[in-house]
Specification:
This protein is mainly β. It has helices at 15-19, 45-49; strands at residues 2-5, 26-28, 31-33, 55-59, 68-75, 78-84, 90-96. It has one domain: Alpha-Beta Plaits (2-Layer Sandwich). The chain is globular.
Length: 103
């Protein structure tokens, strides 16, 4: 697994580079880059914290993701996780962070 950074959506806020536990996300010309995407752990911390939905987690064939991408939009305590498949179909799952450790 790895992430994909859409530079046209990146607002250069720096949250992703601060939150990445592997210190893999760097900044180049103010924008986020991942020079070595093969080292990404797939933890999705940067995906979850990116306020501009500029980072997507690539869901490869090897994990049943069929090449889809997952992004997250935050709305207060709600996280809207959207999986978009290569055919442009998508599905969104909403999770309230207040309930995230309930189960």
């Amino acid at each position: 697994m790895s992430i994909e950074i859409r530079h046209e959506l990146c607002t250069a806020c720096g949250v992703c580079s601060r939150i990445c536990p592997g210190t893999l996300i760097k900044r180049r010309d103010g924008k986020a880059v991942i020079p070595r995407p093969e080292r990404c752990w797939g933890c999705a911390a940067c995906v979850k914290e990116c306020p501009s939905e500029a980072i997507a987690l690539f869901l490869g064939d090897d994990i049943g993701g069929l090449g889809g991408r997952m992004t997250v939009r935050r709305d207060g305590t709600l996280l809207h996780w959207t999986v978009t498949m290569p055919d442009s179909s998508s599905q969104t799952i909403t999770v309230n962070t207040k309930d995230s450790n309930k189960y």
